[in-house]
Every structure is written in C-alpha cells, then in structure tokens.
Amino acid sequence: MASIFDTINLHNGVKMPAFGLGVYKVEAGEQIEETILTALDIGYRLIDTASFYQNEEGVGQAIRNSEIPREELFITTKVWNSEQGYDNTLKAFDDSMEKLGLDYLDLYLVHWPVKGKYLETWRALEELYRKGRVRAIGVSNFKIHHLKDLLAHASEKPVINQIELHPLLSQVELREFCQQNDIKVEAWSPLSRGRFFDEPVLGKIAEQYGKTPAQIILRWHLQNQIIPIPKSVTPSRLKENADIFDFQLSQKELEKINGLNKDQRFGGDPDHIDF
C-alpha cells in the first residue's frame, strides 16, 4: 500500500479503499460533518458508520456538502442488534438510507451475530444485494463458528468481517480462516484508543522511522492485509493517521509487534451479546 487512495478487491469484484475513517462516538451535527469534510480533504474515501452511532444524517450531509463524486466514496453502515431479523432488517436498511440520503450503499454489515437472528438478518442482506441496493454485504464481530454457520446457510458469502483488532488482540486464527474463505478483515478500534502507545517495542520502531506509535500500528495493519478504520475528530490526528504510506516495516519489526498479542478485548465478546 503506497497511497491513501489504494484499494483492495472484494471477492465480488468491488474495489474498497484499504484505509478509512470510523465515526463511532462522533457527535451528530456539526462535529460529524466537519470531521468527514476534513477527512475527505486529506484523502479519506472510506467512511464507516452504523445505525447505532446515531450520526448517519451527518454523514449524508457531509457527503452532499463535499465536492467528491459519490462514485469515489465508499460508505458503510450496519444493522443494529435490536433491528435484526428478516423484515426488521429490510426496514432498518430503508431507515438508514433515508438518514444518509443516498441512492445506494457500498457496504452493509450485520453489526453483531445475534443468536437466533443473524441468519435471517443475512437473508435480508442477500435480498438487498440482489436488488442492487448495496454493492457488497458483510458481517462484523463474527467468530469462526459464526462464520461457519453462516457459510453453511448463505447464498452469498460475506465480503468482509469487521472485528476488534489491534496488536493486543491480533486474532490470528480468525484472520487465517477469513483469508482461506476469501473474506477480507477490517479492524475497528485498530489503535485500541491509544491504550498501549507507551509500549517500548512501538516506541523504538517509531523513533527509527520518525513516526508515532499510532502510525506504526496502522502500518502494521496494512502490511497484514487488514483494513484499519481509526476514529478521530482532531484534524491533526486525522492527518497523522493517514500519513503511513511513505515507509514499510521489516518482517522482523512486524514479528516484534505480533509478539505484543495478549488476546485482550476492550470491546464486547461476540459470544456474550447482552446489548
């Protein structure tokens, strides 16, 4: 990956940016609109929201206020847990599209694998995909056993699995399963909100390249074929996060960062969804 404009090919032929912006907990209204417009000016083209974030209207408004052609943008949203099931998902999609003000969506995800519901939810996503209302469909927070169950019943295979992923939770087995099944991996909370920026391993590598620990972590993601979607509302941080295309980590450095893994979750466990 040599540019913020680089893309990866999803298994259905759709091209998706290899790097993007997550907008979880970005406030609706002025904050979300200004954040996205700043990100678009820097070169971000992938914007990841969700109905649960309650800022889809602001995402749509920022898109309309920007001068970037719609076809150059890649917009993702997700169906929330309480909205799952076949009919509910179709309604949730319509609600999201009305809030976004878009004619089509690039990627629609099942936000969490709600037991007893996610297969019917997936059936609704397949219907939306067949009708051309969304260019690609995928899942979020699915473990291997969820994916196996889905693949055993699905007509369409998910293009992506968006999961909590960072050096403290590297999810190697899940990533390998996804790779074997041609499912791309996307990382939410790729920086784990800065919880381990003081790791000496990261500091030493960062000093060598004249970069920050955050930039080293994001580069680690890219070189592991992971799509990171770091969140920030600070213009300088948005720019810093995107300034990761002018260097490359060595295999030895990648392995040192791999060694930080502690299988440590900071978000919810997909096997225990009580939200």
Short descriptors:
TIM Barrel, globular, eight-stranded parallel β-sheet, NADP, single chain, Aldo/keto reductase, 16% strand, 275 residues, oxidoreductase activity, acting on the CH-OH group of donors, NAD or NADP as acceptor, 39% helix, alpha/beta
Measured between the Cα atoms of the first and last residue, the distance is: 37 Å
Number of H/I helices: 10
CATH topology title: TIM Barrel
Which class of secondary structure composition applies to the elements?
alpha/beta
Binding site for substrate: 111
InterPro entries: AKR, Aldo/ket_reductase_CS, NAD(P)_OxRdtase_dom_sf, NADP_OxRdtase_dom
Active site: 53
GO molecular function: oxidoreductase activity, acting on the CH-OH group of donors, NAD or NADP as acceptor
Short description:
The chain has 275 residues and is α/β, with parallel strands linked by helices. Helices cover 39% and strands 16% of the residues.
